[in-house]
Design goal:
123 residues, mainly alpha, 4 helices, elongated
Amino acid sequence: MNAITMLRTAVAVLTIAALGGIVMAIIRLSGNRNPPSWLAMLHGLLAAAGLTLILYASFTAGVPLLANIGVILLVLAALGGVVLNQNYQWKAVLLPRGLMIGHALCAVAGFVLIVVAACAGSG
């Protein structure tokens, strides 16, 4: 499997994770409640799977520079997600909107760069 195919596969997985993130954001922003823990865990699992595949492609097959920049942004988003999960979700404390939005913006920016790199590549 070449790097572009791995990127495209990761985009598919990250798209599903992003849909879960959108649902969670709607739940949180529409009221004073956190999304269900099972949804947060599924979102994190899928996002981590996509990120792991991109990292594997980057280290073994080489990916375009845009994808590497996207990986950095996704890693930052992942760190924000860990903070949201460990410091708020599991302690049943309301997720702070600012941190949640920062997490989302970082993830979206990284995702867009990955998509551009995957679409620009041949294969």
